[in-house]
Design goal:
It contains 17 helices and 15 strands. By secondary structure, the chain is of the alpha+beta class. The structure holds adenosine-5'-diphosphate (ADP). Adenosine-5'-diphosphate binds near residues 516, 543, 556, 575 and 579.
Length: about 625
């Protein structure tokens, strides 16, 4: 296996071992940790959810028990917003608050007689005066508050029929003030009927009084559905929007009473401590006392009211609609759900996960970047190895020619067979020329190496570029003559001197001249010019040789690079000449450019800055 491949192979293995494998392990561990973390988070969340639900449930039960205790002690009134209905429950039958009034009415014959007498006198005999007396007599016979209220209502009608408006209103006001309100067989407080009477032609002060009486009645009386509708109607007529809303809501709530008997067996089964959920918005139904107690009560608790009073942890809220994936409170509170948003602990875990993902991404990017660097290094190294071997073969080839020339000339001289002094001096000149070429080659390699390592020293001084060109040409005179080149120099005398190292610059121009010779074709003509172009002095070396393909223009300045030659031509060289030119010109703050097309010759230009003083 070639050494270059071995290096690449070893580096790939190294990369795999040092970066890819640890990254993969790290990634696998990271992903596993994230998964475990996620599972733990979910578990913790569901535990937390259950805990919150259990706490809420306990609190709800405690509050319900509170209501049950208060109901048992007779402390629950319609004023209590949490309670929607309180009814007597005995022998499996429900007795609504207003049904008690019916029982009262049926029980008393004497009072009934007096009242019917008064009614007949008022409506049939049209004798309001006699009717009032009868009504008063009935009032005296009344043994319950309901009977008294009925008698008063009739009395108000009699007084009104006689035109005693003030006396009528006094009676009605008295009715309104009753607390709690006595109700008729439909559960309607007698005061409501009286109010209807009072509203006709009442002053605003009287209306206010009526309103007060009405809202008080709502707070003190368990209304039947009919009574609630009537209260809603009355409050609407009085323009009391708030009161109307409460009454209307209550009326709609009471519509479910028709279904109540069907759930009574379930309620009884739930036991003395039990609760069942009923209707919508949900009522929680419970019973007081023990089975068989004659004064057991059925309590209907407004779930929403009670739940609103329970303080929930941040992020949790009641969900009675049941639309979300909220957690049900479980039996007996079917329909009651608690929606719990992801807790802050979960969010913290979320940011932890984000950190993991970021770390993983970082690892992957580092691995990818390292792979890219490695690939670049391997390619560069392979190229360098290729160039190095090219260089060795080029240099040895370059060395071989002058050495063999020198050797041949020296041997011929040594043999002493050449008598002609002109020929002797020609051989000697050849030896000198070839040794010069040798030392130039060695100097070139050394220069390149020194410049590459930043060790080359330049001695700047004011220099005439025309002189520099002359000295470069002088160096190559022998070879130019040998090659039969026609060299034309055209130096503008107006170009000012520049600050430069004359030897280094002469070397650069010499390299360009030597290339112009090497890569010339049939037309052996070279032009060297010196011109001023703005703030630069430009030395151009132009040949009419083989030219360079545009895609090679940038690369020919790279160390050891040699562009492929047309028709497999062979030209000696190490690929360093232009690199050295580039290094020297850059050290002078200038640059080297090339204009060339294959087959049309090349022009290399050295751009050197002209200093201010010049
Ligand atoms: P070398 O001449 O030793 O190969 P250089 O660095 O001087 O190295 O030149 C690099 C390459 O640029 C050459 O191999 C050649 O292909 C191309 N080149 C340089 N000068 C010329 C020129 N005047 N005409 C055509 N090609 C040239």
């Amino acid at each position: 296996m070639p050494a270059r491949l071995l290096v690449a192979h070893r580096q790939t293995l190294l990369f795999l071992g040092a970066v890819v494998v640890p990254s993969a392990v790290l990634m696998a561990l990271g992903i596993r940790t994230i998964r475990q973390d996620e599972e733990l988070r979910l578990k913790r969340r569901s535990e937390e959810r259950l805990r919150i639900v259990e706490l809420a449930r306990q609190e709800l039960l405690a509050r319900l028990e509170g209501v049950r205790l208060r109901a048992t002690a007779g402390q629950v009134t319609p004023r209590d917003r949490a309670v929607g209905m309180l009814a007597r429950f005995a022998s499996g039958r429900l007795m609504m608050p207003w049904e008690t009034a019916v029982a009262d009415r049926e029980a008393d014959g004497a009072f009934q007689g007096a009242l019917q007498q008064a009614e007949r006198q008022l409506h049939q005999l049209r004798d309001p005066v006699g009717a009032s007396a009868q009504a008063r007599a009935a009032a005296l016979k009344a043994r319950t508050r309901a009977q008294r209220a009925r008698a008063d209502l009739l009395l108000a009608a009699c007084l009104s029929a006689q035109g005693h408006q003030k006396a009528t209103r006094d009676v009605v006001r008295g009715l309104l003030r009753l607390n709690p309100q006595p109700v008729d067989e439909f559960g309607v407080p007698y005061a409501f009927y009286a109010t209807q009477r009072l509203l006709e032609g009442a002053s605003s002060a009287e209306q206010r009084e009526v309103l007060e009486g009405l809202s008080q009645a709502l707070e003190t009386t368990w209304l039947s559905p009919v009574a609630a509708h009537m209260a809603a109607d009355l409050s609407a007529r009085l323009g009391a929007a708030g009161l109307h809303e409460v009454a209307a809501q209550h009326a709609s709530e009471l519509e479910r009473l028709a279904d109540l008997p069907s759930v009574l067996p379930t309620l009884e089964k739930a036991g003395p401590q039990g609760w069942i959920s009923f209707g919508k918005p949900p009522w929680l139904l419970g019973l007081t006392g023990q089975p068989g107690d004659p004064d057991r009560l059925l309590i209907a608790v407004r779930a929403q009211e009670l739940l609103a009073a329970i303080r929930l942890p941040v992020g949790a809220r009641w969900d009675l609609g049941g639309t979300t994936d909220a957690t049900p409170l479980g039996e007996p509170f079917s329909g009651l759900r608690l929606a719990i948003l992801p807790d802050p602990v979960g969010n913290r875990n979320g940011s932890g996960r984000l950190f993991f993902v970021a770390a993983l991404l970082l690892v992957v990017s580092v691995a990818a970047f390292s792979a890219w660097l490695l690939n670049r290094d391997v390619r560069r190294e392979a190229r360098l190895a290729r160039l190095r071997s090219q260089f060795v073969s080029s240099v040895s080839h370059e060395l071989r020619t002058p050495i063999s020339t020198i050797r041949t000339c020296a041997e011929l001289l040594d043999m002493g067979r050449i008598g002609d002094t002109r020929q002797v001096s020609e051989y000697l000149r050849a030896i000198i020329g070839e040794s010069d070429r040798l030392s130039r080659l060695v100097d070139g390699v050394l220069d390149f190496a020194r410049t590459e390592q930043g060790e080359r020293a330049y001695h700047f001084q004011s220099v005439s570029l025309a002189d520099v060109i002359q000295s470069a040409v002088r160096e190559l005179e022998y070879q130019l003559a040998q090659g039969g080149f026609d060299l034309r120099i055209d130096a503008d005398p107006e170009v000012p001197d520049v600050r430069a190292d004359p030897e280094a610059l002469a070397q650069a121009v010499g390299n360009l001249l030597s290339n112009a010779m090497k890569y010339s074709g049939e037309r052996r003509q070279i032009e060297v010019s010196l011109r001023r172009d703005g703030r630069h002095a430009v030395v151009r070396v132009r040949d009419h040789g083989i030219g360079i393909a545009p895609e090679e223009h940038a690369r020919i300045f790279e160390g050891f690079y040699r562009a492929p030659l047309p028709d497999g031509r062979e030209v000696p060289g190490a690929g360093l000449g232009l690199t050295i030119v580039d290094q020297i010109v850059k050290a002078h703050g200038g640059q080297v450019t090339v204009e060339s097309q294959p087959g049309q010759g090349s022009t290399f230009s050295l751009w050197l800055p002209i200093s201010e003083q010049s």
